[in-house]
Design brief:
- By secondary structure, the chain is an alpha+beta fold.
- It has three helices and three strands, in the order H-E-E-E-H-H.
- The protein has a three-stranded antiparallel β-sheet.
Length: 71
């Protein structure tokens, strides 16, 4: 994994995959997918850390390649 993602890029990609913004608390956006009943928390940072990104991808049910295509 050589590419890094910002929080805004992740929000845009997850919106395209069916997630909606539920609410925001500080610098974190809570997103929810009603069809799959999945909730994901996205930090609005310039660069999301590798471990955090992996957890978001895993929880959202996406692969890294799918995420790159959505961004």
């Amino acid at each position: 994994m050589s590419r890094t993602f910002s929080g805004e890029e992740l929000v845009k990609a997850l919106r395209r995959s069916g997630f909606v913004v539920d609410h925001q608390r500080g610098s974190h956006i809570f997103m929810h997918n009603l069809e799959k009943n999945i909730s994901v928390i996205i930090p609005l940072h310039k660069e999301v850390k590798k471990g955090t990104l992996n957890n978001i991808i895993k929880k959202a049910g996406l692969t890294l390649n799918e995420l790159q295509e959505l961004v």
